[in-house]
Every structure is written in C-alpha cells, then in structure tokens.
Specification:
Keywords: Lipoprotein, Signal. It comes from Winogradskyella marina. The protein is about 10% helix and about 45% strand. It has about 170 residues and is mainly beta. It has a single domain (about 25-165), classed as Jelly Rolls, CATH 2.60.120. The protein has a four-stranded antiparallel beta sheet with strand order 1-10-4-7, with no helix packed on it. A four-stranded antiparallel beta sheet has the order 3-8-5-6, with no helix packed on it. The protein has a two-stranded antiparallel sheet with strand order 2-9. It starts with a helix and ends with a strand.
Length: about 170
Amino acid sequence: MQILRKTNKLFLVVVGCLLFTSCDSDAVFDEYASVPNQWNKDSIATFNFKAPDTLNGYNLYVNLRNTDAYKFSNLFLIVEMNYPNGKVVKDTLEYKMAAPNGELLGTGFSDLKENKLWYRGYKEPFAFNEEGEYTVNIQHAMRNYGVVNGVENLQGITEIGFRVEKAQK
C-alpha cells in the first residue's frame, strides 16, 4: 500500500511538471544558472542558444530569482550578446528591484521572488539577423552609494536566467 502511494505521488509530480512546461508555448529558450551563496562581481552567467529563425520577432529577458537577503532597491547588470559572426553588443542595464517602501518586486509568495526583466524586444520585437549560435554573458555591476569599487559579493541572488520567447503578433 505504501509503495502504491509513493508511485501515485511520483506520477502526480511528473504529470504536474509536464503540464507546467507544456503551457509555456512561447518559450524558445529558457535556462537558469545557480548562484552559490553570493554572486561574485567576476562571476559571469553564460547562456548559449541557437537562433530560432531570422524571420520572426522575439522578446529577450534576463530572469532573476532573489531572496529578501537582497538589500538594494535596484540592480545594475552588464549583459553582453555575442552574435554568430563575431559582432558583440554590450549593455549596462539598470532594473528596479524594490518599491519605495522597501518591499521587493517580483512574483512569489515567500521570501523568494522571481523577476522577468526586459533585455530586448520591449519597443519592437528583436530579430535574430544572423543564423547560428548566440552567447549571452551576464554579470552584476553593483556599487554601494558613494563607493568607487564595486560590490565584491552580491547577496540575495539565487539564480540568473535568460529567456527567449516568440513575440505576440
């Protein structure tokens, strides 16, 4: 009887996972990298993916999961996209991470919040104009107010992700 219960629980977990992932039909690429304890300023999250096509438009996102150990109201990231034919585009981006009252933004019911942050496609869909393998590198560029040197180890970020989804027409 106990084996049957364990089998039923395992079956429900597998079916739940399949339903959860199958409902996300817009995702073309969605991957996360874990951050052990703290995100070092020299640690770069790297994501490699193949261009889905050169005809359709896409939205590109940086995804972050953070806990209430994150003590800043914003987040500065350096995001670098390497195109298949050698072109490199590097951006320094700022994202709002907390409301004026200090409450962390993002979705989630516990102290773990998930943030889906625009990278490309917010004004008009991003087009992959080169076929082949793209590489996206993400690192933090946080500084304490009035301090020249950056934050060595950023606390509160648990995972960094990158997502490509088909743009809605």
